[in-house]
## 1
Amino acid sequence: MSRFIPKINLRTLAPLLVVLTALLIAVGLVKSKPTIEKSEQTKILPAVQAMRIELSDTAVSVVTQGLVKPHKQIELASEIAGRVVWVSDTLIAGGKFEKSDPMVRIDSTDYQLRLNQASAENTRATVELEIAEKNYQRSQNLSKQKLTSASQLDDAYKVFKLAEASALVAQADLEQANLNLQRTEVTAPFSGRVQKESIDEGTYISAGTPIATLYADEIVEVRLPIANEDLSYLNWPKQMRGTLSPDQSVKVDITSSYGGIDYLWQGNLVRVESEVDSATRLFHGVAVVENPEFEDIPPLTVGLFVNAEIAGRLYQDIAVIPRTALINGQVMIIDHDNRLQYRTIEIIRIQQESVLVGAGLKNGDLLCVNPPTIVVEGMQINPLIANANG
């Protein structure tokens, strides 16, 4: 008997083969997937600049500005009237002169004649005095011998005293005439420079007419405004006003620029004005600077705008920290676990980009120089230590 073999329909079998193949591929992909190793996540800490605190003795200073002014300045004037016949070549704005240099000459003709006249009057009065004195002595001798009356003696005495007075007047007139003749030449009372002049040759001037403005340039001064709150930093008696004694004078560094080059002059604060400027509410100190003509640095010129640094008090065991480290009167210290901790400090002074701290910090403290924008006390950071406190 023959075996029955059923017929396979390929159309029916094809979808099953496709499904079976897909399942085999899926199983193969699952078995061949890579193994992912687990790793711990690294914590990233914010980096901040830090510095190590070192306490030191630090002197403060007061920075201000001012204009150079003459230490001594006068209006040169004539003491007599007359026509100007000569003017010195140095009598121009900026002209340099020495003490006793002639600056102006006035026509002396009239004054020479007056001197001659006074000399003659003095000679006449001197002769008359000698005669009157001899007559009085003769009358005294005759009176002792009872050869003249008392009235005659009195008359001789009277004539003698009048002659004596006339001689004194004549002598005074002679001295005045001689002095006026000398005054026809106007001389410089000190060495210095001409600020401005106001006459020319041929000008007729009266007694007291200003000739020029002169100032001494061997010493100049600078008037320096000082804020009320800065007075406590200066090393002088707080009740002191007026001229300071030599041992109380304060050193001042004056700086300015000549031809694009910065120069430094040493001066001394020698005077404190007693009044406060009503407009600015500032005190004013006056510094003087010796101004030699021939040195390695140029002389300070009157009218020059200068910067000044006035030496102040010396503070002991203080820290100087950057202003960026200050947060509402506090700072942040980095502890041994690199965590931020608030620290209250005593601020002596804030000057430019630095803060002077008197208490609250100690040697070796690690200060956070630039705290993060969002600060939480106790947060951990990564300190980048910069140079030590200086």
Note: The first helix runs from residue 10 to 31.
## 2
Amino acid sequence: MDAFYASVEVRDNPALKGKPLIIGSLPNERGVVATCSYEARPFGVRSGMNIKEAYRLCPNGIYMHPDMHKYRAVSAQIHEIWNTYATASERIAFDEAYLDVTEQAGDFEGARRIGQLIKKRTLEEVGLSCSVGVAYSKTAAKTASEEKKPNGYFEIPTPEDFVNLIIDRDVRVLYTVGASTSEKLYSSGIHTVRDIRENPEEVVRILGKQGRWIVNIANGIDDRKVTPYRPEDAKSISREVTFQKDVNDYELLKDVLVLLALCVEQRAKRYGLHGNGVTLKLTYANMKGITRSRLTPACDNAVMIYHEAAGLLDTVDKRPVRLVGAGIYNLSGEEGRQLTFDDIASGAKEQREAEMKRLLDGLQAKYNLDFAGHLEQIYQYDILHKTVEYMRKHAKK
């Protein structure tokens, strides 16, 4: 999709059309740019940029919080259209996927028709433009999809075509080559794809196994299959929040962990997963991040996640905190879950529910919150963030 979040907002409010629109945090908040309209990009604004830097570059832009609930609904629409044409669909994000259309297309002419149909239906049925790349491999298809953005279409039929297209471009054109990897290559005088092809041993020496992969794709070699995403293939499930002002109150952090644990539980149950370990993530005011973890019995409920994460919080240095997160790891499906004594014991579920009610009642009394009939909204990131900020502002000093 083309500037997905921003495009959805423009579709729903035509008055925003043609204006530099930045989706993410507001200029007076902490945070980053999630995405921006193409009108904002000539100012130097880009995804992942600190919001204050974006405001310095584009002070007259329109800044908006993301509406994740709305974007999720639109995402379901577009993926439903795309999946119609594929034997396998590998969803990369809300707005992006690899599609294997080999069987339906038969040849490149058929793939071309499918690509144009996808563009046409996405625009007509969802009101948004997308860019399509048709190619012999995943790496080439990704490159092709970005070649003519926005509302683009591009083909890369063969490895030779791929190499000829990118050979004199910066190494960062290649999949997996980010800022850190590119700096390592630059330091050895390797700046372009041509340099990689001419110095394969040096690339492998610098980067090891990743270097061999990069040498391969620089030569157009990529035989990865389109693999449908399965939630159980994820390594972890987590949720985190960034505070607008640093937090010194560790009791407040524990209260926030209650809500984060609920979010993790909701996602785990949606996919029928449980973890065999709990993690706590903190970023301190000086931007130093730490992660603490603890192996546990099968864990998929918020009460256990909360108590384990809170216990981990007791072990860390007590310094001002910018971000807090909680999660589970070592994921398995329900079919592999071993029953614990608590599962078998009479009333274990009722005890957990009573404990969570006690925790939520405590938050309601402490911060004057009202979860009655609204608790499911806490799973939406914007609602979670607003609730946490409300708690921070109303915490006892």
Note: Residues 4-66 form a domain with the MutS, DNA mismatch repair protein, domain I fold (CATH 3.40.1170.60).
## 3
Amino acid sequence: MRDILDPIVKWWDAGEAFGLATVVRTFSSAPREPGAAMAVSADGEAVGSVSGGCVEGAVYELASEVRDSGQAVLQTYGVSDDDAFAVGLTCGGIIDIFVEPVSSQTFPELGDIAAAVRADEPVAVATVIDGPGQVGARRVIWGPAGGPAGQEDGPGDGCQPDLRRSSGTLGSGDRLDQAVDDDARGMLAQGLTGVRRYGPDGERRRDELSVFVQSFAPPPRMLVFGAIDFAAAVARAGKFLGYRVTVCDARPVFATRRRFPDADEVVTDWPHRYLAGQNVDARTVICVLTHDPKFDVPLLEVALRTPAGYIGAMGSRRTHEDRLARLRDAGLTEDELARLRSPIGLDLGARTPEETAVAIAAELIQLRWGGSGRPLTTTTGRIHHG
């Protein structure tokens, strides 16, 4: 839904009702991930996509019906379903799509959610999609960074404001709401979206209720060190993949906004000092392109002791061996050194900055989804992993 927030909020602001279809579960080679959405306005305008084209027509019709009827529907499309096959889901996958009516009356929190997403504040939306009780009931969970647009929800322990709050109810009582709140905040921390199952009182060992939790976590960070031409290409690729990109270099003549227009921020600082002051998590990508021991060795000392999910460094194999020796002398362990991906990127034969950026992007995608990195023509089985 993140991709279509702007147009649907305009409809919402205007008081229009619309049908919102969201992918909530996928199986096998499904074309879109959970959270992908399509909306159909009162005058028939459609925005977004749930299948990359396979079942768009059928979902459009269903979203129009739900918008008019006001009744939410959970629909499955896949090759095992005759009707789904007839509308064209021939990729071998199965998708569950939840379609709900939305307006300012049925979803009063939508404006606040949009404001939080624009401000990079974490928020999750939990919706009952199946089971006894209130299908379509919704609860909004604001993450630890605060409520809508930085608002505070009043005192917590009497000294500090409580920046974690929720609104709405899933309809089965406080226990279910509290269980979903806990799980949703954990999913927000990891940037996860998906279905969780509960009993009517929030029992995690039961599965009568299916609750779809859509996380609107801030985008993961990509920290690019070294203001060189390769960094400009990597910054462009990082933005394309959805990262919040920072380029950092100690040399002000090179670390300029003009040279890196695609970066979200350009910082002039010693790389190791800048990194030491940042909040790094398991979704963070660190690309060390400095190619100079006086910069990259102190930087990697810091980087390899963070929880960053990816740490790559540019350089030849000879440079890599020299770098490892220096890092061992600095006291890093073999387990810490094993986290370093150097030379950076997949073996694509890349030469230019743009080709090298593609090789780095390819490695990030491979690690995210568990691909082999081999040509698809030489593999068998499922195309989409995870």
Note: The first helix runs from residue 5 to 13.
## 4
Amino acid sequence: MQPLKNIWLLGVKELRSVFHDHVLILFVIYAFSLAIYSGANGISGDVNNASLGIVDEDQSILSAQIVNALLPPLFDEPVQISASEIDQTMDDASYGFVLVIPSGFEADILAGRQPEIQLNIDATLVIQARIGAGYIQNIISSELTRFMSGTDAEQSLPLTLKTRFAFNPNASSVWFTGMTLLVEMITVLSMALTGAALIREREHGTIEHLLVLPVTPFEIAVAKVWANGLVIWLATLLSLIGVIHYSLNIPIAGSTMLFMAGVALYLFFGCALGVFLGTIANTMPQFALMTILVLLPMNLLSGSITPIESQPHWLQVATLALPTRHFVEFSQAILFRGAGLDIVWPNFLAVFLIGFAFLTYSILRFRSAITA
């Protein structure tokens, strides 16, 4: 029982060190609260209150009908401008979209001709530019059909297409982005805290003090893993309930405890990776640079940003060796689709096996690094 007691006492010592580092604690609080909240609301692929200018040279019933259909929350209240103001307002980024309805537009439609409507788009908006252009085109087409038939387009068609969005009824990017940021923060902080703790011991010279005690390198490494992992686990639980569920109003479809059990398994890998990088880097700046080199490909290939299916086939197979891919898969399955253990157990098993293997390797490397 002495090794377990040593691991417990070393872990408590590590927790005291973490909580006495006020800057580190503030960073953890920020990462799991404000960073997730602001990122979820600020990084959006939706069109929301897009600025819209209107040059209505026709001043007809049809043109007014089109303008009145461009309503919030997709677009701000349309602003009537003149044709001479288009270039200046687009250069000043006053409007993301400027719609020009030419003179005689309604008369040409009634005469069976095909007049053109000009849509000027500020393409520096990128995502909103493309999606917003599609929305405007659909709105104009719908209003033209309604004007020509005198009724709604849906009623004039022989069938009605009903679209159902599963697991995200409003297709809100906030839901997806909030969950994605939480998963990324778990990966980043589990690596950073454990690796930084090891580097801090080395820079302050306290690692030599530990080695003269009747403890083994294995006990030192495991103590750092469970102590820093516990901090991240508690921060994740509070963030999931306080930020994700209550502040961002994202419903949690599945079991919170099942997700947290998966987080605990994943933390073995994240903390082990921090130990591994801590044995390679000699200083904190080196550790920070190595963390960036490791985190970027792990996050990009995990499926949290882009679907796994969009990657080349050989790369899809290679990502099976990444715990981040399995972590993202079971996180989305539990939190969005309400999946149970009977569905996500293969991902749990993969995370456990990869994490355990990497933890074993990291501890062996840690032992050789500090005893060399």
Note: Residues 52-156 form a domain with the abc type-2 transporter like fold fold (CATH 3.40.1710.10).
